[in-house]
Design a protein that fits this description.
- The complex is a heterodimer of chains A (about 110) and B (about 110).
- Chain A has about 110 residues and is mostly beta strands.
- Chain A is built from no helices and eleven strands.
- In chain A, a hairpin with a 6-residue loop joins β9 and β10.
- Chain A starts with a strand and ends with a strand.
- The relative contact order of chain A is 0.34.
- Chain B has about 110 residues and is mostly beta strands.
- In chain B, strands 2, 4, 5, 6, 9, 10 and 11 form a seven-stranded mixed beta sheet that branches. In chain B, strands 1-3-8-7 form a four-stranded antiparallel beta sheet, with no helix packed on it.
- The radius of gyration of chain B is 13 Å and the shape is globular.
- Classes of the chains: A mainly beta (about 110), B mainly beta (about 110).
């Protein structure tokens, strides 16, 4: 089965709200995690990544949190905008030098 | 800089025909990946190359699928013969390799097999 999964397939928020997208992973040995955003008709686009020796990393309006105890990853988007509407994927790297394994994705819908 | 370039963007073909998808990775990237995306199965890894050498092809569905990377700037994914269940979006991605796992994706090829 999937080694990376998501808690919710869809998330609807109002413009200006904060969004939290969750992801669970099953392999405690995974050492690298990454979030991608995919807009309709486009390829996945890198948002932010984090290594297992960290529990938080911040970017511009985005924060990734890693809880290794419960094998949980989350993406927080501050002041969500209509342009944030997309499918968000988490992915993990089971071993250095191998390929990313992707979860199924969460669709984020932002209404004005 | 140009990103990962895939062609064609769309391909419509009939069952039994040969299909060839093409990818040009980002210049200087040493690793290249082929993924397939469907609603049911999400993004699945098909195969990846390091320095033009196939490393893991365990995701290739069956012998009808083959991939090559003749040089550092070009790769192909071929399906022969194609079947309707092969209909999906096929993505190529590249990375600098050497332990850097961040992938840069192309825009994908939407394949429809009738």
């Amino acid at each position: 089965g999937e080694s990376v999964g998501l808690h919710l397939p869809t998330l609807s928020v109002q413009e200006g709200d904060n969004s939290i997208i969750n992801c669970a992973y099953s392999n405690s040995a995974s050492d690298y995690f990454i979030w991608y955003k995919q807009e309709s008709g486009k390829g996945p686009q890198f948002i932010i990544d984090i290594r297992s020796n960290m529990d938080k990393r911040q970017g511009q309006r985005v924060t990734v949190l890693l809880n290794k105890t419960v094998k949980h990853l989350s993406l927080q988007i501050a002041a969500t905008q209509p342009g944030d509407s997309a499918v968000y994927f988490c992915a993990e790297n089971l071993q250095a030098g191998t390929a990313l394994i992707f979860g199924k994705g969460t669709t984020l819908s932002v209404s004005s | 800089d140009a990103g990962v370039i895939q062609s064609p963007r769309h391909e419509v073909t009939e069952m039994g025909q040969e299909v060839t998808l093409r990818c040009k990775p980002i210049s200087g990237h040493n690793s290249l990946f082929w993924y397939r995306q469907t609603m049911m199965r999400g993004l699945e890894l098909l195969i990846y190359f390091n320095n033009n050498v196939p490393i893991d092809d365990s995701g290739m569905p069956e012998d009808r699928f083959s991939a090559k990377m003749p040089n550092a700037s070009f790769s192909t994914l071929k399906i022969q013969p194609s079947e309707p269940r092969d209909s999906a979006v096929y993505f190529c991605a590249s990375s600098t390799g050497g332990g850097n796992e961040k992938l840069f994706f192309g825009s994908g090829t939407q394949l429809s097999v009738l």
